[in-house]
């Protein structure tokens, strides 16, 4: 976990898309607890959902025997989520640009782009198996 952050909640579940509904429940709980303004709620929900979908699909390859872990963290200026999968990781420094003409019509490949545009900070570690999604408050 990044220095100076405190874990305030956590959640884990098997890599099944039916569990994505748990993410909305978690976001609702966190936003209520931290008194997060409604304008930020949608960004938080979409960014976290994208991270969890990536963990289930690309990280754990929809293997129900593997889990996704989410830690909710905060400090005086930020709150966010640490999402971990049990997969092999990926090269997060060499991703295709989803806004490039050759990629614009593709049905996937926009999750990390969305996360980076909706959150204030997005950082990967552990060969891409862990992503920190942070929001300023």
Q: Largest sheet, order of strands side by side?
A: 1-2-3-5-4
How widely separated are the two ends?
A: 19 Å
CATH class type? Alpha Beta
Instruction: Report mean pLDDT, rounded to a whole number.
Output: 94
Query: Could you say what the CATH topology is called?
Result: Heat Shock Protein 90
Task: Provide a count of the helices.
Answer: 3
Provide the low-confidence segments as ranges.
Answer: none
Q: Rough shape?
A: globular
Structurally, how many domains make up the residues?
1
- How many strands, which pairing sense, and closed or not: the largest β-sheet? 5 strands, antiparallel
How many beta strands in the DSSP annotation? 5
Helicity level, as a percent range? 25-40%
Give the percentage of residues in beta strands: 25-35%
Radius of gyration of CA atoms, rounded to a whole number: 14 Å
Q: Which homologous superfamily in CATH is the superfamily?
A: Histidine kinase-like ATPase, C-terminal domain
Estimated structural class: alpha+beta
CATH architecture name? 2-Layer Sandwich
> Secondary-structure element order, as H and E?
EHHEEHEE
Task: Walk me through the structure.
The chain has one domain: 2-Layer Sandwich (Heat Shock Protein 90). With 137 residues, the chain is of the alpha+beta class. The protein has helices spanning 21-34, 38-59, 111-118; strands at 6-14, 67-74, 78-84, 121-125, 130-136. It contains 3 helices and 5 strands, in the order E-H-H-E-E-H-E-E.
Compact overview of the structure:
This protein is α+β, with helices and mostly antiparallel strands and 137 residues long. The protein is built from 3 helices and 5 strands.
């Amino acid at each position: 976990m990044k220095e100076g952050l405190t874990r305030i909640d956590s959640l884990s579940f098997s890599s099944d898309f039916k569990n994505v509904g748990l993410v909305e429940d978690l976001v609702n709980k966190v936003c209520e607890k931290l008194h997060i303004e409604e304008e930020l709620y949608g960004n938080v929900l979409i960014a976290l959902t994208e991270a969890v979908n990536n963990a289930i699909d690309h990280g754990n390859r929809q293997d129900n025997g593997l889990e996704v872990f989410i830690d909710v963290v905060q400090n005086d200026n930020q709150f966010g989520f640490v999402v971990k999968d049990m997969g092999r990781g990926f090269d997060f420094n060499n991703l295709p640009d989803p806004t490039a003409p050759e990629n614009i019509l593709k049905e996937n490949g926009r999750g990390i782009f969305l996360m980076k545009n909706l959150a204030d900070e997005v950082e990967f570690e552990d060969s891409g198996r862990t992503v920190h999604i942070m929001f300023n408050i």
